[in-house]
Amino acid sequence: MAEDVRVYGDFHRISPDIYEQLKGAIPFDQVEYDGDVLRVDHEGPYLYIDDFLELIRDLLPENGYGHVEYIDEVEWEVTRYTIKPGGIQSKVVKVDNVVDAHQKEHGL
User: Fold this and answer.
1) DSSP structural state of residue 42
2) Segments forming the whole domain that contains residue 80
3) 30, 56 contact by CB (below 8 A)
4) What is residue 103's predicted lDDT score, i.e. its pLDDT?
């Protein structure tokens, strides 16, 4: 099976009540929840996550937050999402630029 995307994320301050409202909408293969932090992971075909991110945005408590890295291995892009109550920010970075920035930062 071709792995077109790799997606992983974590969401903090997820109460059991919020998790109950979310769990039917989670599109990820792997889900880990410990009573406060929800971690999600997916490797495989393209995964649509916009509806899920909007739902989590709307359910996050005041001090809640989350991050998702969406790595498109076909287009060689990473989309980094930052989710806070009432807002989703995203930034797209070409994978080559990520490697270049890492190498420059570490003097490689």
Assistant:
1) E
2) 5-105
3) no
4) 58
CA-CA distance, 87 to 65, in Å (whole number)?
10
C-alpha span between 88 and 86 (Å, rounded): 7
Count, residues in the chain: 108
Number of domains in the chain: 1
pLDDT tens digits, one per residue of 20-78: 999 999 999 999 999 999 999 999 999 999 999 999 999 999 999 999 999 998 888 99
| Nearest 10 degrees: Cα torsion 52, 67, 80, 49 | -10
- Cα(85)–Cα(32) distance, rounded to whole angstroms? 21
Q: Which two tokens stand for residue 19?
A: 């998790």
Give the pairing type, strands 30-33 and 37-44: antiparallel
Structure tokens at 86: 């009432």
- Under 8 Å between Cβ of 10 and 80: no
CATH of the domain at 39: 3.30.70.1270
